[in-house]
Write a structure and sequence with these properties.
By secondary structure, the chain is mainly alpha-helical. Helices cover 41% and strands 3% of the residues.
């Protein structure tokens, strides 16, 4: 774990952070609208479909993918318009391919090529997405649980870790991760006046 500014300087050439693409958002939106389910459980819907290469090319032509990090996306930065008219399974397959292709495209910008990718969050349950990632990244793609981690808790643990760094006044952001001019801490600390304020 990086500790204080000196460690960040030492590891600075390895830092790179940005939003790669839509994650599960478009897949969830698509299957919710066309299949009446909140997400593609296990990637079964996408696995039954075929990727539309023209639709995939349109999605990947978004100018966002020409930008280098640091950069970030809004939840609604992409839409399912490019797959409109496709059968539900083909749309899901195309959007899963898009999610993986966006990650693979950003991976080419990394200062070093990772030897392994570890997937956390809900996407790790989507076998079709994992399959697309393995094919496009060309290195092992595993899940958090493979390493003994709690995949559903990683984000909460990360924010807890950042909160501790904030309390200690240690940096949370670096030029390589968010574009700040220098390593900075962040957040505001609110302490309850008494136990009744909790």
């Amino acid at each position: 774990l990086m500790n204080r500014t000196s460690d960040c300087t030492r590891f600075g050439e390895l830092l790179y952070a940005c939003d790669c693409g839509p994650g599960n958002a478009l897949i969830d939106d698509w299957v919710s609208a066309h299949c009446g389910v909140p997400y593609d459980d296990g990637g079964k819907i996408a696995a039954a479909g075929r990727v539309s290469e023209p639709a995939l090319a349109t999605l990947l032509a978004n100018p966002y993918f020409q930008q280098s990090g640091p950069k970030s996306l809004d939840r609604n930065a992409f839409s399912t318009v490019s797959v409109a008219g496709l059968p539900p399974a083909d749309g899901a397959a195309t959007l899963a391919a898009f999610t993986a292709a966006a990650i693979a495209a950003e991976a080419r910008r990394l200062p070093r090529s990772p030897k392994e990718w570890i997937v956390v969050g809900g996407g790790r349950h989507n076998h079709q997405l994992l399959s697309e990632l393995r094919r496009r990244l060309g290195v092992p793609v595993t899940t958090a649980e493979h390493h003994g981690w709690a995949g559903d808790a990683i984000e909460a643990q990360a924010f807890g870790y950042l909160a501790v760094r904030s309390v200690l006044g240690w940096p949370l952001s670096w030029p390589e991760t968010t574009g700040v001019s220098r390593p900075v801490s962040g957040g505001e600390h609110w302490k309850p006046r008494s136990h009744t304020d909790v």
